[in-house]
Amino acid sequence: MSKLTWIGDYWAHTPSDGSGGKPHxxxxxxxxxxIRAQDYAKVFGAGNLAYLLGIWHDLGKYNPEFQQYLRxxxxxDEEGKELGRKGPPHAIWGAMLLxxxxxxxxxxxxxxLPVLGHHAxxxxxxxxxxxxxxxxxxxxxxxxxxxxxxxFGLHPAGQPEKVPENPYQQEFxxxxxxxxxxxxxxxxxxxxxxxKLPKAREHDLDIPTxxxxxxxxxxxxxxxxxxxxxxxxQHVQKVRDEVYAECLEAAEGKPGVYRLTVPTGxxxxxxGLAFALKHAQKNGLRRVIVxxxxxxxxxxNAKVYREVLGEDAVLEHHSDVGTATRKNAPDQQAxxxxxxxxxxxxxxxxxxxxxxxxxxxxxxxxxxxxxxRKTSKLRKLHRIARSVIVLDExxxxxxxxxxxxxxxxxxxxxxxxxxxxxxxxTQPAFETDEMTEAFKDIxxxxxxxxxxxxxxxxxxxxxxxxxxxxxxxxxERLASEIKAEPQALTILNTRKDALTLIRELQAQGAEHLxxxxxxxxxxxxxxxLAEINKRLDAKGKKLSVRLVSTQVVEAGVDLDFPVVxxxxxxxxxxxxxxxxxxxxxxxxxxxxxxxxxxxxxxxxKGPYQKGIEKARTLLETSKDIDKDMNGTEMLRRYFAALxxxxxxxxxxxxPLRRELNFRKVAExxxxxxxxxxxxxxxxxxxxxALDQWQRFPSRxxxxxxxxxxxxxxxxxxxxxxxxxxxxxxxxxxxxFEAVGQYDLLLxxxxxxxxxxxxxxxxxxxxx
Length: 767
Prior knowledge:
This protein is of the alpha/beta class. Helix 28 (686-695) runs antiparallel to helix 29.
């Protein structure tokens, strides 16, 4: 096989404007990727291995056929034409060389799969090995890869580190080294194509700087709230001060598992962040990741964090850009080379990599990434090493996935220097779960040991069953009762029920009616919450406000209503709903929480439905509902009953992980079981953000577009597309085009809300 004349003749990517019209030299790309990957992976003790993978990941591009393909693509681009053919595969060639050189290695899959899947994603171990071993012309291609190594003079930085022998640890280790390789490869490619690096990636910010900002910002925020007249009852402020002090004291501890049990209204948001930042500073940790079940809480928490820490410190991440390929475009091998058709490549580079010190994300993003196979989700994983992960409202984690979830969390603590904070008013007590092994012997530090006392001090509501209970209350009667309340929050289990009640309230002439759900974009939800809180906070007045919502408001949203109506739900959800009632303890009397049955009786299936059954039993056998619901013992009995009735690995994720079946694991471990797509909705300044993203898709422009996105199921998108309501822009990204149909009260015109819960299991949808 003929060689080109000199090393610089070998291209990794075609010339670009960002590189001054020069091609991306292959040797330099391999070296730069290897150095980056080594830097990323050395944090978890795999630097030499990641360096080796970086050198060998694109060796297949040494193939003269691939080099000719790049030249042809460049020529076609200069002539304003499309090449019209795919490039030859290249990732498999480097994997082939690894397979040959290290065939006796007991964990060979961990070494070959990252190279094989650095574009397409991790294969199942068996499929990956078969693909490599059945590659045609094996000996010729192997000879060419050996020639490439000799030509470029690149060698491993040192002996690759030992791969974990435990199959579950090995499976996760494979994801982590793949993440380091993929992020390094994408960033080096991004640099070639001219994407400027944001300041945070240049390490202008670090944890000590952020801790200093936090102390100053918290004082500033509290003073600002005081000036606005947001008064907090003295006994509530006392609890908040005690929680904050306990968080600072506990932050001095070593990395591990911590529990932050705080009653709703006890200042959990800021105190939890204070613990995370100070704990990270004390232990030399690199990042704080706050994961939250609902997108609605991200809107609120990220806003608070930015007020305290500054706009440049916080990444708000809840939607992924579709990063496969442009519709009808060539696959990644071809797109790699075609600069004028590089939208798909740029979309891939726009995949989030969590390169800022504070990340505010969803459970879906965090946990599905921990079990993912696609590079767009894997890319960020290596940045989790040596971080603090705050799991806010941890009780919402699906119980039928708890075996795999807790096992990976344990691995992060044991192998990657991570601290986990289980943060909620309703602790699920994983360590008492007889069916799950992962948390049995791991120490858990209670950040606020006297939490039971705080719950007694912050008893601000009285629970009661509706007069019609256990019979369902008629919609007409429920609407009439809510209309009679100047300020009331009603939470339903389904989008359909929420719409039914809203229509009945409208028919009865109820004024100042509001709605919240995830079928409204983030910017819309922020605006609605601001209007609601403005009316609730009006000093000396009691302005009317009636909010009808799905479950999105009950986990951490800062609302303070005197009355809350809650449809029968899992017990922890009812307690969380009560946290939106008399939150600041300023009422002359206790707030009221009324539990009722709906006419439809509909609720999400799976563990959510089982949670309702357990709650019904406990409520109907309670001798004093108000006393039991304001205590902690009933919740303990509730979780024990729920975990006893829901298998910890109902979907059999762990056996798949043991066999390194990455594709099947990713398909099975889903918090939202159906695929979703992103809809850009016509709200506020969406056109400006859309124009920026369309002109140059990147991580920065995608982040700016997120406030105008709504996620819906793929099959729902197909229906809307048939009706010309939406138009596809890219794979998985649509634009809502039906003029006047995005409702300023209800959001997208869909009768059910697929993304209100991460709790949807067993294929159950919200109807």
